[in-house]
Automatic annotation (TrEMBL):
The UniProt record lists the keyword Acetylation: yes
PANTHER family per UniProt: CYTOCHROME C OXIDASE POLYPEPTIDE 7A, CYTOCHROME C OXIDASE SUBUNIT 7A2, MITOCHONDRIAL
Organism: Salvelinus namaycush
Signal peptide: none
Transmembrane region(s): 53-78
One of the GO BP terms on file: mitochondrial respirasome assembly
Record InterPro entries: COX7a, Cyt_c_oxidase_su7a_sf, Cytc_oxidase_su7a_met
Keywords: Acetylation, Membrane, Mitochondrion, Mitochondrion inner membrane, Oxidoreductase, Transit peptide, Transmembrane, Transmembrane helix
Name under which the protein is recorded: Cytochrome c oxidase subunit 7A2, mitochondrial
GO molecular function terms attached to this record: oxidoreductase activity
Family recorded in the similarity comment: Belongs to the cytochrome c oxidase VIIa family.
Pfam families assigned to the protein according to its UniProt record, in alphabetical order: COX7a
Length: 83
């Protein structure tokens, strides 16, 4: 039982020590500079084409959802007459 615990400790030490050695480039200053530029583009579209696509999809779904809610409210307000 003790061997299993000791082996687990060694594996956990190894993964922690090897992950700390990897250096990742800090992209935050570049992103901050890009998003703080005053170029007339709204902040929610400065990410590029993917932001524009997500924005348009969100607006389309919002409009369609609102129209459907209004339709259902009208249907509920004026129920069909039974013959």
């Amino acid at each position: 039982m003790y061997r299993h615990i000791q082996a687990l400790q060694q594996v956990s030490r190894r993964t922690l020590s090897t992950s700390a050695r990897r250096q990742v480039e800090n992209k935050v200053p570049h992103k901050q500079k890009h998003f703080q530029e005053d170029n007339g583009i709204p902040i929610h579209l400065k990410g590029g084409a993917s932001d524009a696509i997500l924005y348009r999809a969100t607006m389309t779904l919002t409009i369609l959802g609102s129209a459907y809610v209004i339709y259902e409210l009208v249907c509920a307000a004026f129920p069909k007459k039974k013959e």
